Every structure is written in C-alpha cells, then in structure tokens.
Amino acid sequence: MVENHRGVIASVRGGESEPLGADEDPKQAWENASRAIGEITGDPEEAAKEMDGPTGKMPAGQIIGQFVTMDVLVHTGTWHEPSVRTSVSTRTPSAGL
Fold first, then answer.
1. Domain that holds residue 70
2. Distant-in-sequence, close-in-space partners of 8: CB < 8 Å, separation ≥ 6
3. Which range has the worst mean pLDDT, 70-74, 76-80, 92-96?
C-alpha cells in the first residue's frame, strides 16, 4: 500500500518512488503517504496533474478516487481478518458469493 501511494506521489510531485525500507516504521510510512495523498487531492493543481494510470493518462485526483481508494478498501478491509477469510472460503456458490 505504501509503495503504491508513493508511486502516485512521485508521479505528481516528481522524484522517485521508494520501496518501504527494512528499517522504516511501516505505520509512520503509511501515515506520511496517506497525508501526502490527502494533500494532493486537496490541491486543485496537483489533483489535475495528468499521470499514467491503469487505463491511460488521467488526472491524479481521478486515479486516487478510482484506483488508490479501491486499493485501500480491498487491502485494509475486514477481508484480511482470518475469521472472515475462513468463512468466505467455505461458502458455497448458493450463499451469494
């Protein structure tokens, strides 16, 4: 998640996206990356900056709204809780999944 956020931040603000370092505090890295994404969406100039997205060139704000937000929901939601993962994996097609 941090690396994906850093990629968007680097595309908008310039520089290189850095992977999470072995000595880096993941919580602090997440907070910094999330704060920067919030700053980008709050700045009309940065949010309008065109960048390469999954479907071609798009404004950064649109990429954040459509793809970064989805990533956050998918990878930080309750789907990662072991009890939910177990119950979902044991459901049958008739259970609605």
1. 2-91
2. 37, 40, 51, 60, 63, 64, 68
3. 92-96
